[in-house]
Amino acid sequence: MSKESETSPLPAIAAALKREREQAGLSISELARKAGVAKSTLSQLEAGVGNPSLESLWALAMGLNLPFSRLLDPPVVPVQVIRASQGMATRATDAAYEAVLLSACPPRVRRDIYRIDFEPGISKISLPHAAGTVEHVMLLSGRASVGPDGKTIELLPGDYASYPADTAHSYEALEPNTRAILMMDYT
Fold first, then answer.
1. For the chain, where are the alpha helices, taking DSSP H only?
2. Does 46 lie in the same domain as 114?
3. Where would I find the HTH cro/C1-type domain in this sequence (predicted)?
4. Which of 28, 109, 138, 175 could be 142's S-S partner, Cβ–Cβ 3.0 to 4.6 Å?
């Protein structure tokens, strides 16, 4: 687990916890009791301090009756790139295990997942999909350039990018045996 993946999730967690707790109409004491987490721990997390474990965050998400990813939702940006060594990492306390949320599926969205294999040569040009469609690409092997026309991003293995797919976009392998996971969100 590299130092580069140390981008702190605390500001996003603090904002999300407070927002979701207040929307649920719960006090800090009530949520702490429901989640089985110390009130002081929850107070610190909402203040943006502390070192939350994966287990504590999971318990809080369950106490709020939310998907875990809702507590790590990054701000929405039209094009997002997360390099293999970056991202908000949440670590387990009892194992050498960390989770980096790349994308949370918004409510009432359909998500399709594909594996794509492509080779250098002619770029795959994709016409715009339905309004609101977003694509997520995680490069598994090779090297590729993907994204909206005029704003393509070069990806290396482990890198992730998301972008609006309701405009023309393309996929170009820059090395042989390029493979990626493609996820498409439709509203």
1. 10-23, 28-35, 39-46, 54-63
2. no
3. 17-71
4. 175
Q: How many domains does the chain have?
A: 2
156 inside domain: yes
Indicate whether 3 pLDDT > 50.
no
CA distance 128 to 148: 9
145 in any annotated domain = yes
Domain range enclosing 169: 110-186
**DSSP-H helix ranges across 9-167:** 10-23, 28-35, 39-46, 54-63
| 111 alpha carbon, distance to own chain's centre | 14
Residue type, 178: T
- 70-100: pLDDT as tens digits: 787 655 557 878 888 887 777 777 777 777 7
The reported pLDDT for the residue numbered 7 is 63
Residue 93 lies in a domain: no
